[in-house]
Specification:
It contains 5 helices and no strands. With 182 residues, it is mostly helical. The chain folds into 2 domains: 14-77; 95-168, no CATH class. Helix 2 runs antiparallel to helix 3 (56-77) and helix 4 (95-135) crosses helix 5 (144-168). It starts with 8 loop residues before the first helix and ends in a 14-residue tail after the last helix.
């Protein structure tokens, strides 16, 4: 007879933490928001362009984060995350893909002054894509054609971003030349 009885949500999704842990996550988010608010207090509030001061965005982020934390706590205290899906993912960390993505980020940070924004971000993109494809189980990733597609795609993303920031927004980004175009 117990086979015909509907299963409880707890037995269907054993990987969802208990409501107490869920409430603790919500409280941690509220505490993080309070920390952001304390940081926002340190920023002068003199109104700038359009009447908005430099502390507006930190205050907005702190407020939205606090609201999310309060909603998480409310949800946890009223029965838990009822619609929570299984976290999915691999049972163990995939270290090789992680290393590829990390290498892309770290090399970009280390070499952006030497390579310039466009080529540094292209390198970051190409290495990160290699890691993500490895995590997805794809094969033949180091073939010249696949590498060329990744590099060209990275260039097609990084170059317009660089030009938008340097030419139209007048924000200085590291480049290879002083012209602002490369």
């Amino acid at each position: 007879m117990s086979e015909l009885a509907p299963s409880s949500p707890e037995s269907e999704n054993a990987s969802v933490p208990s409501p107490a842990w869920q409430a603790a996550v919500g409280v941690a988010v509220v505490v993080l928001a309070a920390g952001m608010a304390v940081g926002a207090l340190q920023i002068p509030g003199d109104a700038g362009y359009g009447g908005v001061g430099p502390n507006f965005l930190p205050w907005l982020c702190a407020a939205v984060l606090a609201l999310c934390g309060v909603l998480l706590v409310r949800e946890a205290l009223t029965g838990g995350y009822r619609q929570a899906a299984d976290g999915g993912g691999a049972p163990r960390a995939m270290l090789v893909p992680f290393a590829w993505v990390s290498a892309g980020l770290l090399l970009n940070a280390a070499l952006i002054e030497v390579l310039g924004f466009i080529f540094g971000c292209t390198l970051c993109y190409a290495l990160a894509v290699q890691g993500l494809r490895r995590a997805n189980g794809q094969q033949g990733l180091l073939r010249p054609r696949a590498l060329a597609v990744d590099v060209v795609t990275g260039l097609l993303i990084a170059a317009p971003v660089f030009w938008l920031f340097t030419q139209f927004l007048a924000i200085n980004l590291p480049g290879l030349t002083n012209t602002g175009w490369l």
